[in-house]
Amino acid sequence: MPVRVLLRRGRHLTKALPLHVQGPTKGAEYFAGYILEQSLSVDNLFVFILVFKYYFRVPRADQDKARPCAQAQKMQTTAQSR
């Protein structure tokens, strides 16, 4: 794993420590939410790959170009719905 990924994960885990001082359930809830968000983001990648590959039949060379656009649009629509 790249060092950048390890530092980012470590930063999120250190945010759970002060919550643990407030009570063990606060830290556990934060950690459970963090794990859930990570698993959902990986799930979104699989959905993007399946949609590009089977529904739109985008060639493999063009998938790398289209994926960031689709992810940006997904983040924009998610932010607008909140």
Task: Write a short abstract of this structure.
With 82 residues, the protein is mainly alpha-helical. The protein has 3 helices and no strands.
Q: Count structural domains.
A: 1
Please bin the fraction of helical residues. Answer: over 70%
Give the low-confidence spans: none
Terminal-residue CA separation: 32 Å
Q: Tell me how many strands there are.
A: 0
Major sheet characteristics: none
* SSE-based structural type: mainly alpha
Shape: elongated
Percent range for β-strand residues: under 5%
Number of helices: 3
What is the overall pLDDT average? 76
Radius of gyration: 17 Å
Order of helices and strands: HHH
What is the quaternary state of this protein?
Answer: single chain
Secondary-structure map:
Layout lengths: L2 H20 L1 H32 L4 H22 L1
Helix pairs in contact: 1-2, 2-3
Explain this structure to me?
The protein has 82 residues and is mainly alpha-helical. The chain has helices at residues 3-22, 24-55, 60-81. It has one domain. 90% of the residues lie in helices and 0% in strands. The chain starts with a helix and ends with a helix. The model has no long low-confidence stretch (mean pLDDT 76).
